[in-house]
Amino acid sequence: MWCRGFMQQTVRHVSTFRQAGVLFDVDGVLLRGRSVIPAARRAVRKLLDINNNFLFPVVFVTNAGSCQRHHKAQQLSHLLDVQISPDQVVLSHSPLQMMKSFHNKCVLVSGQGPVTTIANTLGFQKVLSMEQLAQHHPLLDMVEHNRRPTPPSSSLQSLPQIQAIILFGEPIRWETNLQLLIDVLLTNGRPDHAYATELSTQLPVLACNMDLLWMAEAPSPRFGHGMFLLCLESVYKKLTGRELQYEAVLGKPSLLTYQYAEQLLRLQNHNHKLTTIYAVGDNLMTDIYGANRYNRYLAQQHASVVTTTKLVAKGTESQVTMAEDELVSADQCQSILVCTGVYNPRSPLPSDQSGAITEAVFHGQGNLVLEPDLVEPCHVVEDVEAAVDLLLQREGAVTSDLP
Ligand SMILES: [Mg+2]
Fold first, then answer.
1. What's the fold here for domain 20-92+255-314+327-344+356-400?
2. What Gene Ontology terms for biological process does this UniProt record contain (predicted)?
3. How far is the CA of 343 from the centre of ligand 1 (A)?
4. Cα–Cα distance, 102 to 366 (Å, whole number)
C-alpha cells in the first residue's frame, strides 16, 4: 500500500531527478598533488550533459581539511574545467556544522591553514589557536632550543578554560602541538596549571581525517593526519596509561561523513531519494572501508524501516506516512577502487598468512575495529574514467532517458 503511493510520487518527477549519485574522493583519484590525473578530465566530461551540467548528483568527498569548501570548489572547478559549487564539496571537517552542542564552547583548534576561520565558519564562536595558546603560555613549548622564549616581563591576559579540542589536520610543528595538546588534556583545559594527578573525565576531542597516508607527487604515500594522531595517542597512553578517547571522528570512513554527503547528493536531486550511491576512491582503509560500512548501515536502516512499515501497515494513514519519510536514504552504496593513488595492485598491503589485511595500515579509533570484509571493494578499475564508464553502464537505463 505505502509502496504504491511512494512509486506514484516518484514517477511524476522522473525527468527531474536521478536514481544514482556519485561520491568522488579527490587525492589519488582526480589529483596527484596539484596535478590533474589525465583520466579525471575525461571522466568528468563523460558525466556532463550538453549544457555542462552533471548528469547525476555529484559530491567530492575528501579528507583534506586545511581549507574551506568554497576554496576547494574553486580549485576543483579550475583544475577539472567544470563548475563545482561549495555544496558539492565535503571536507573532513564539514560535518562539524551539525555538532551544535560544541558551537558555544571554548575550543582549541590544531592543524594548518586558516583553522580559526574554518572553525568560525562551521559555527564555533569561541576559538583558540595553538599559536595563541603558545603565545599566552610561552614556557610550554621548549622542544626546539632556538625557539625557547624568554619569559615575558608583563603577564598576558589569562585565557578562558578550554572545553574541547578540534584536531583539523596535521600541524606543521608536530612537536609543539604534541606538547601543548598533552598539556591541555592533562590539565583539563588549563595548561598554565600543573598536570592533574587524577582526571575523572577527559576533555572532549573531535578529530577530522584519520588517514595514515595519502598520495601526492612523491612515488610513495606521505604521512597523513592519522599518523599525527597515532603519535598523540601514543604519548597520551605513555603518560596516563589510558587510551585517548574521541568524542567524534570525522572524515572518511566515519558514518557521519557519508550521511552528510548523502544529504548533499539528495539536495541536488530535488530532495528525492537515490537508489545507488557510487563511491570512488583510492584508499582501501578510508574510501572503500567507509563506503562498504555505509552500505551495511543503509541495509540495516532499510531492514528496520521495512519491519516498522509492516507493523504500521495495519494502523492509521498518518503512521504509514511517517514510515515513508524514513525511507529517504539510498538503497545501497557501491565502492569502486581506482589504481591511481594509494592503492597499488603491484604492491599489495601487508597481510598475514591467511591473506587478510593486517591492522598495520588501519587506524582504528575508539570502537572502530578493522573488519576485513569491509576492505573488499565492489569493483576495482584502472582509473576514475573506468569508474565512470562502469557506473554509466550500470545506470544505462537511466542515462538513455536523459535529455
Ligand atoms: Mg585519496
1. Rossmann fold (3.40.50)
2. glycerophospholipid biosynthetic process
3. 9
4. 20
